[in-house]
Amino acid sequence: MTIYHVDALLAGSGWMHDAAITVSDTGLISALEPKAAPDAAAVRLRGALVPGMPNAHSHAFQRAMAGDGEYRTASHESFWTWRTAMYALANGVEPADLELIATQLFIEMLKAGYTSVAEFHYLHRPVGGGTYEGENALWQAVDAAASTAGIGLTLLPTLYLSSDFGGRPLLPEQQRFRLEVPEFLEAIARRRSSLKASAGSTLHTGAALHSLRAVPLESLREAVAGLVAMDSAGVIHIHIAEQLLEVRACQQATGRRPIELLLDTGLVGPAWCLVHATHASAAEITAVAAAQAGVCVCPSTEGNLGDGFFDAERLLTRRGRLCIGSDSEASISPSEELRWLEYQQRIRRRRRAVLATRREPHVGARLWREAARSGARALGQAVGALEIGRRADWLLLDTDNPALAGAAADGLLDRLVFGGGQAAIREVWVAGRAVVVDGHHRHEQQTAVRFADWLRQRRFTAT
Asked: Is 84 a residue whose pLDDT tops 90?
């Protein structure tokens, strides 16, 4: 056990001042005490502790093309033209490349305030087809990167079977993504079994269904039945209703909208996370909240790709769960995702502080708490709050930094989200271990040099 004494910390019940927080040898919080008497044995932390942010949706390999698609190649640029460049990258990445890209990304996430990540992973096969001997080398690459960086990871092996509604065959550029349902389930079962042997591990396993256009309903039902039999509480993620073209194609093929179609299966529940849901109708949002499923929005990617705005106010008013993700890695900042989540609502409704409530009048504080707790559920990890029994994942904020100086209580989180407070993140801890100290990660320099060299040697843009 290690006891830390801190000026202030945001516990599940609210702010504690002059607080003591005890962390077990396995990295879990075992005690919290406000107004704690000074203890010579305690480690002194100057500043304020807030929960680290779970990143509920990431495609790590796409970090290698961040910023490379910001030019026009067609009369009408969209997600679908961007996807061409993404496929070119996806079909050139080897396991060693992926490990390097992901290590660089995960270090950047930690420095920005993400302490865990759900990796929505659909790279399964070697370049050119076939299978890897033994364990999947691409999955192992993501695990290795997370271990090196020190970030919590929920790997979401992703089922991807068809190129469009109606079970159309995969395109040549999608062949690396293919796993048949039996091999998908078998590989997840093996991974879960191997990770059970590691008590206190920061590596976890969930599952994802790429989308309704990529997973026909019959296969979706088969996969979900197998996943639930394996672990009834295991998290399941799915891309859905991100693009208007997707919504229209689903309506044409099935007579129903994507979220409506998914909910009609009767499968969706608290273990599910619907990613994007950008074009959800009012009735669909109400039904998702009633099903206790989570929604993960990625405002920086949704803005970058021109997807649209999710109606976050409607979901939160109905007590739905809302979390955030970095998705295409166009931006790697929980503060920016939350800021733009609120700004989207302000632009739509032409008023301020849309996502505040009477109970929680501070927008930044409300959004940080909500995204952290809901993100933890989406990852299936005991994180997202500083509470007994949860993992000791936190950010130590420098309250003397100009971005935070003079702020009190929830005003700290408002500054963190809206006032450039990310610069005040002094330390980042995962499972009771400091992985960022004085704003730096111990592997950042050598990883950045290797990553920059790799980028110079290999380009995957659509020029």
From this structure: no
